[in-house]
């Protein structure tokens, strides 16, 4: 008889509990894929007494997750504790050091310590697998690591945070404000009490850092990522996007440019007809542009206990069967320290919403500053409110009105410089809203 | 030094040529993934003199692909000849019998001989990989085989034939007839001179047979598939679909039902808001419904030399690294001979377009027959042409007019029985158009 592959699970939240239940119900399929039976032997969590809906007595209980990581009973530690440092980091490092495989869903850990942990895994000849760390149940890690060796990836972009996509979807469909939708997201459990990590783009940035490394064969470089969240998006921006044929999504984008690898997280205008624009609610999606395969899009659940556990279980089966390969799809020594492309050099289309004083010459003044910075405009939309239009014979109220510009490809630096001048000219009443456009 | 993994390529059409070029340019990445260098050592094709844009002199030339399959120089045979039987089958069988790995893009071969070849591969301890056989560059084989062991799949459906999707997309967007779009597809090289295989759904059926086996762990059973093509689709159906909030796609659908596994290929009404409805032109897509991951959709190029070669190269790297696993994700002995769910037992919504005689009582007669068969109607649309409406005070011309019914879930048998009666009642002037509805 083949010796079973013995798994220890550190962290029994919704994902951990679901991993146990899935391994029970899919035992045969997992064994077929892994080439041997998979057996959970030990578990560790904060609260032993908590009702998880199933019996824990058949597993060895560890009060200390580090003891589980050190246990000789365990071939593979599944780390579901979370956090870039502290216990999670120690558990993973300990397990790898002792020659145990590790499966984790911990994006923060990977984004911060990925290269060091991959080196350790390599040195010890064990696997470090992390499909569940990005985009929940979508097999995007496997796709980037295994399905595209024949491709040179030029760009990837994704909706990697369900909270943000839920908020933007509801703002768009119901004309609500960011604050209203955030409150609902919190009520439904889609957002944390402190939502900063999600809505300000940091969660997306961690995930993007991991995908970038896999896609470009580069060392993880989370600090290089330009990050902007969605809290500044106004219902008016969504209405304008609709009118202009776009939707607004919080994207993580990684792109190979002439200066290096550009990594950025920001609200983005995407064409309404693109695959990624169709992705609404808490769903995640990733599009990969590559030379041979052209465009590949994967859409699925980005979170949730079962979907994340599905990814964990796939990793366990791969590791049990010796099929996980190197952590980032190549030896750590082969990962390049790719030059960072600075955000100021980013080139693309821009949506710019100015709140201008409603008086003669303002549009001309704005257009002149744009022209001076060598920025070509694809369209200009001025919206005058109906109330304002009744105030004087020219329809001017003197009150600030929105002026929306769509530019052709321009650099971030030139856009920023033009907007500074427009601001100094006294043409605008509020800081400008700037949303980058990403085309297919 | 590690011995290179020696590949022989049988068939040098656009895919074969692209495999050689990709292995040249991505050599390092493929070696990193495969754990050793990959080297094309031999090639075989019909015409040695043909200009393929690169030099063949560095490879051993085989006039006879069987000689290549037998060559001791070769560790892995890449079969790109095509066809369910004849040379392709012999090449694959010979290579496997001699303990060589096989990578193939041949869906017809797999659909017909998949189980037997998988047994042979298993017996000889070698891999048989076929990512390129379904949906070109989309890693759907890998996803079903490796990413979902924690899932019980309930349904999968896909746009698996680019020719059909191109034709339906153009019919919809430009209001053209099937014949007009087919001609364009042929001119652009998207359709063969004899398009039967594509437009009548047989190509989709081969691919569906393969996906079904992977998704449900069942033996390939291509003969169980109900197949209907797109040649009967009229511009009026697309216009009605639009009005009713649907798009028409040729789908391959495999579903676990109470009676067994249902496999069917037919034009299908899908909700306009679904991910799969967004897929236009020659692009392919597959959606997988499963218990843990809920819904997963993969979208990408279904054909083309480079996209298909991308899948072939990924297989080569997996096989070189010993990571391909068993052919269908489990030992052949574990594949179930799942009961076939007969089409008559299919249950779902239906779009029915009748061409009825325009006289009193016809709509009532139709509705009565539907009610007798226990079919509930979600909507009824009667379109009377403007010309007809001028003929008499009641707007009736006596000439046949379309009457469209959308049903709630009903069985194929009850629909067929009701339509037979309606036909025998003399209510319709033409055979009915029936299009099944597939909801998310």
Automatic annotation (TrEMBL), chains A, B:
One biological process term in Gene Ontology: threonine biosynthetic process
Residues given in the record as NADPH binding sites: 107
Sorted UniProt keywords: Amino-acid biosynthesis, Methionine biosynthesis, NADP, Oxidoreductase, Threonine biosynthesis
Enzyme class, UniProt record, top EC level: oxidoreductase
InterPro entries: ACT-like_dom_sf, ACT_dom, Asp/hSer_DH_NAD-bd, HDH, HDH_cat, HDH_CS, NAD(P)-bd_dom_sf
Entry EC no(s): 1.1.1.3
Recorded family membership: Belongs to the homoserine dehydrogenase family.
Full protein name: Homoserine dehydrogenase
């Amino acid at each position: 008889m083949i010796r079973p592959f013995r798994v220890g699970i550190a962290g029994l939240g919704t994902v951990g509990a679901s991993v146990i239940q899935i391994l029970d119900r899919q035992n045969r399929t997992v064994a077929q894929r892994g080439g041997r039976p998979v057996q959970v032997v030990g578990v560790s969590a904060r609260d032993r007494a908590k009702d998880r809906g199933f019996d824990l007595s058949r597993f060895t209980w560890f009060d200390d997750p580090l003891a589980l990581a050190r246990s000789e009973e365990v071939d593979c530690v599944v780390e579901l504790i979370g956090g870039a440092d502290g216990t999670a980091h120690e558990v993973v490092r300990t397990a790898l050091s002792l020659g145990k495989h590790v499966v984790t869903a911990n994006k923060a850990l990977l984004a911060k310590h990925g290269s060091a942990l991959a080196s350790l895994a390599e040195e010890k000849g064990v696997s470090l697998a992390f499909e569940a760390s990005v985009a929940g149940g979508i097999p995007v890690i496997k796709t980037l690591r295994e399905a595209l060796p024949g491709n040179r990836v030029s760009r990837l972009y994704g909706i990697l945070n369900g909270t943000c996509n839920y908020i933007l979807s509801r703002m768009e469909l119901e004309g609500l404000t960011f604050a209203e939708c955030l409150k609902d997201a919190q009520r439904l459990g889609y957002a944390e009490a402190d939502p900063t990590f999600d809505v300000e783009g940091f969660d997306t940035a961690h995930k993007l850092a991991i995908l970038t490394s896999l896609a470009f064969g580069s060392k993880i470089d989370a600090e290089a990522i330009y990050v902007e969240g969605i809290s500044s998006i106004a219902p008016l921006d969504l209405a304008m996007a609709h009118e202009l044929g776009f939707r607004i999504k919080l994207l993580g984008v990684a792109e190979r440019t002439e200066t290096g690898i550009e990594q950025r997280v920001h609200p983005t205008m995407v064409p309404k007809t693109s695959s990624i624009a169709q992705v609404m609610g808490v769903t995640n999606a990733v599009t990969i542009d590559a030379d041979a395969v052209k465009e590949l899009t994967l859409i699925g659940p980005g979170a949730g206990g079962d979907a994340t556990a599905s990814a964990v279980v796939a990793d366990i089966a791969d590791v049990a069967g010796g099929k996980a390969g190197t952590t980032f799809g190549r030896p750590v020594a082969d990962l390049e320290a790719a030059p960072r492309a600075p955000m100021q050099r980013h080139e693309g289309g821009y949506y710019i919403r100015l709140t201008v004083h409603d008086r003669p010459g303002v549009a001309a003044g704005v257009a002149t500053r744009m022209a001076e910075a060598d920025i070509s405009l694809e369209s200009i939309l001025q919206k005058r409110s109906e109330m304002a239009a009744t105030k004087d014979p020219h329809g001017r109220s003197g009150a600030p009105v929105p002026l929306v510009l769509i530019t052709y490809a321009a650099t971030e630096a030139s856009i920023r410089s033009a907007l500074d001048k427009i601001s100094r000219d006294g043409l605008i009443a509020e800081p400008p809203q700037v949303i980058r456009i990403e085309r297919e």
